[in-house]
Automatic annotation (TrEMBL):
<dbReference type="Pfam" id="PF01890">
    <property type="entry name" value="CbiG_C"/>
</dbReference>
<feature type="domain" description="Cobalamin synthesis G N-terminal">
    <location>
        <begin position="54"/>
        <end position="134"/>
    </location>
</feature>
<dbReference type="GO" id="GO:0043779">
    <property type="term" value="F:cobalt-precorrin-5A acetaldehyde-lyase activity"/>
</dbReference>
<dbReference type="InterPro" id="IPR036518">
    <property type="entry name" value="CobE/GbiG_C_sf"/>
</dbReference>
<dbReference type="InterPro" id="IPR002750">
    <property type="entry name" value="CobE/GbiG_C"/>
</dbReference>
<dbReference type="Pfam" id="PF11761">
    <property type="entry name" value="CbiG_mid"/>
</dbReference>
<dbReference type="InterPro" id="IPR052553">
    <property type="entry name" value="CbiG_hydrolase"/>
</dbReference>
<keyword id="KW-0378">Hydrolase</keyword>
<feature type="domain" description="Cobalamin biosynthesis central region">
    <location>
        <begin position="140"/>
        <end position="218"/>
    </location>
</feature>
<feature type="domain" description="CobE/GbiG C-terminal">
    <location>
        <begin position="231"/>
        <end position="347"/>
    </location>
</feature>
<dbReference type="InterPro" id="IPR021745">
    <property type="entry name" value="CbiG_mid"/>
</dbReference>
<dbReference type="Pfam" id="PF11760">
    <property type="entry name" value="CbiG_N"/>
</dbReference>
<dbReference type="InterPro" id="IPR038029">
    <property type="entry name" value="GbiG_N_sf"/>
</dbReference>
<protein>
    <submittedName>
        <fullName>Cobalt-precorrin 5A hydrolase</fullName>
        <ecNumber>3.7.1.12</ecNumber>
    </submittedName>
</protein>
<dbReference type="InterPro" id="IPR021744">
    <property type="entry name" value="CbiG_N"/>
</dbReference>
Length: 351
């Protein structure tokens, strides 16, 4: 999912007033600001041939695009580029006098609605947001997923169904699994019906369960499982280990701890393994980061775990998977370390 971050916002200015507005924003946020050669000021970048060409190029490079200019012009330029609400960048349009900030594209998952409110607040502009859940002052399933960094099977259909139920006045329950009970405090849950016990359900039309589990109890209604990405795995392995073997053992480790595969947030290893093809391929296949730690970093925590002199002679530290998982999860390890066929794997849960 594409969540707009301040450091990946590109701003496009078409007039002198637009440049002045962008300068006001740039004084408060880290932005990449683009304008024409004749309007160029210090700290700004020139258009590459034209506004349209530059905006089209930026569409695939930045998490968020802000156009200070016409909504119609912006729509005409980006229309051929729009593909998917889960991957398109946030697009916000601001009029050159700074009176209105309009959330145009990817309001929830892309973060355009949140960015619109932020920019409007900085400029003293009126935010214009038209998504149904926001207009009705309700949360949305895709917003909740973004806040939790969570995944879900058939996410697109689930978002469409749950958000439609919410804005139609239907009762959608929201249940949090025990390890995640602190999460609601930082999430927008307006419109959802709080559910404390799956064995004592109130009258509902559907239920969203926030859980890391691979299975939930059978329930007599429509259930959607939202899975926060919290599980990390430290991995040590021999040179030339196959992707098939790594995948098989990882799936077994997740299943043994009853974790949904969608809960996997990252894999990690020692820096010496940065070029290990199977580890790179595993991260790519799961679309998760591959985090690396130096031997010095791991050495600070190896006393907590059994050490292997063979491993020490090979990588400079007596243990890899356990201290890696320890660092990735801030010490929240789960289950036993797997040791098989020259591979070690240790799971942890981050927050």
């Amino acid at each position: 999912m594409n969540i707009a971050k301040p450091e990946s916002i590109a701003v496009f200015c078409l007039t002198p007033n637009g440049v002045r507005l962008a300068q006001r924003l740039q004084a408060q946020l880290p932005l990449s600001c683009f304008t024409s050669e004749k309007l160029l000021v210090p700290g700004f970048l020139p258009f590459n041939a034209s506004f349209g060409a530059t905006l089209r190029e930026a569409f695939g490079r930045y998490s968020a695009l802000v156009v200070i200019g016409s909504t119609g012009l912006t729509v005409r330029v980006i229309a051929p580029l729009i593909q998917d609400k889960l991957t398109d960048p946030a697009v916000v349009v601001i009029d050159e006098r700074g009176q209105h900030a309009i959330s145009l594209l990817s309001g929830h998952v892309g973060g355009a609605n949140a960015l619109t409110l932020r920019l409007a607040g900085l400029l003293g502009a009126d935010p214009v947001i038209t998504t149904a859940t926001d207009v009705n002052q309700m949360a949305a399933l895709d917003t909740l997923a973004a806040q939790l960094d969570a995944g879900m099977s058939d996410f697109r259909l689930a978002v469409k169904t749950v958000n439609q139920l919410l804005v139609s006045g239907q009762r959608v329950g929201l249940w949090w699994d025990e390890p995640l009970r602190d999460e609601p405090a930082r999430c927008d849950t307006r419109g959802f019906v709080a559910v404390a016990d799956l064995e004592a359900l109130p009258e509902l039309d559907a239920l969203v369960c926030v859980s890391l589990r691979d299975r939930l109890p059978e329930l007599p209604l429509l259930v959607y499982k939202l899975v926060p990405r919290r599980v990390v795995v430290g991995i040590g392995c021999r040179r030339g280990t196959s992707l098939a073997l790594l995948t098989q053992l990882l799936e077994r480790q997740l299943a043994d701890q009853h974790f949904d595969p969608l809960a996997l947030r990252a894999i990690g290893s020692v820096t010496l393994k940065k070029d290990e093809l199977a580890l790179q391929q595993l991260a790519q296949a799961r679309r998760i980061p591959f985090e690396l730690f130096s031997s010095d970093e791991l050495r600070q925590h190896e006393r907590r775990f059994p050490a292997s002199e063979f491993v020490r002679a090979t990588v400079g530290v007596g243990s890899v998977s356990q201290p890696v998982a320890w660092l990735m999860s801030a010490g929240k390890l789960v289950g036993d370390t797997l040791r098989e066929q020259g591979i070690t794997m240790t799971l942890g849960v981050s927050h």
